[in-house]
């Protein structure tokens, strides 16, 4: 089985090590992983900003590059949600594109959802020390139903999860929202960071790099250099 890995812009440009951890997990699960070299953005920033024409161009490009694979795996709830949920809106006036997209849509998975429900992996306990808390990213949770999957995988790896208050609340990123409404975004991020600290774990794990950068950035700007902010792929792959 061939898996097309949609790396995402943020992972590609800012944290490529997360992409390599994702590849490791998929290959260990027995899949051939292909990373199309011409892939770019999923179109979400343009879509959220009302630039439908640009978003559709990027959606068509993504469709062309990934429809050949048995599965498409995305280590990000927001990009996964864009492809699996919102491309239908962009293609709704084109029957040919909708037909092709319909065949692809059911093969698109967020990473932990794929590992649990398609690959059905059984991970061995690892060497990660100490408990963590988990942040449920908005798109992954609400658009893709990602909630139990990462927790189940962390349990397999022997990682204790201590739930923080309001773990399902937004981190304040929201893509362009953080730029357009900086003060509101900061207030939301401060609340999330306070809940992370109050968990008493010293580490927060999540599955979306936008949330990861926003939480980590706010923690560091407020003087917290100790709390670790980790992507789920890194923890599961044993790369932290």
Q: Could you provide a short overview of the structure?
A:
The chain is α/β, with parallel strands linked by helices and 240 residues long. It has helices at 9-14, 16-28, 44-48, 52-66, 77-90, 95-105, 111-117, 138-144, 148-156, 177-180, 182-198, 209-221, 232-237, and strands at residues 2-5, 32-34, 71-74, 108-110, 133-134, 203-206, 228-231. The model has no long low-confidence stretch (mean pLDDT 97).
Q: Could you walk me through the main structural features you see in this protein, from its secondary elements to its overall organization?
A:
- With 240 residues, the protein is α/β, with parallel strands linked by helices.
- It folds into two domains: 2-117; 133-237.
- It has 13 helices and seven strands.
- The protein has a four-stranded parallel sheet, sandwiched between helices. A three-stranded parallel sheet has the order 5-6-7.
- Helix 12 (209-221) links the parallel strand 6 and strand 7.
- Helix 5 runs antiparallel to helix 6.
- The longest helix has 17 residues, at 182-198.
- The mean pLDDT is 97.
Keywords:
7 strands; 2 domains; alpha/beta; 240 residues; single chain; 13 helices; globular
Biggest sheet overview: 4 strands, parallel
Return residue spans where pLDDT drops below 50 for at least 5 consecutive residues: none
N-end to C-end Cα span = 28 Å
- Order of adjacent strands in the largest pleated sheet: 2-1-3-4
Overall mean pLDDT score?
97
Q: Quickly give the structural class.
A: alpha/beta
Number of strands: 7
């Amino acid at each position: 089985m061939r898996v097309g890995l949609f790396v995402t812009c943020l992972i590609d440009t800012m944290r490529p090590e997360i992409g390599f951890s994702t590849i490791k997990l998929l290959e260990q699960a027995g899949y051939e992983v292909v990373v199309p070299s011409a892939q770019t953005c999923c179109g979400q920033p343009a879509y959220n900003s009302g630039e439908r024409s640009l978003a559709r161009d990027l959606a068509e490009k993504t469709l062309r590059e990934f429809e050949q694979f048995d599965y498409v795996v995305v280590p990000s709830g927001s990009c996964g949600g864009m492809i699996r949920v919102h491309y239908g809106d962009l293609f709704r006036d084109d029957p040919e594109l909708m037909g092709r997209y319909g065949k692809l849509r059911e093969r698109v998975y967020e990473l932990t959802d794929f590992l649990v429900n398609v690959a059905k992996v059984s991970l061995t306990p690892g060497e990660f020390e100490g408990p963590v808390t988990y942040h449920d990213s908005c798109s992954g949770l609400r658009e893709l139903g990602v909630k139990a999957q990462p927790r189940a995988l962390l349990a397999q790896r022997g990682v204790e999860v201590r739930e923080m208050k309001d773990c399902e609340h937004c981190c304040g990123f929201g893509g362009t929202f953080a730029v357009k409404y900086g003060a509101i975004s900061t207030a939301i991020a401060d609340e999330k960071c306070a809940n992370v600290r109050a968990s008493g774990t010293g580490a927060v794990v999540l599955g979306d790099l936008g949330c990861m950068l926003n939480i980590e950035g706010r923690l560091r700007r407020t003087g917290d250099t100790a709390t670790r902010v980790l992507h789920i792929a890194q923890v599961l792959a044993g790369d932290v």
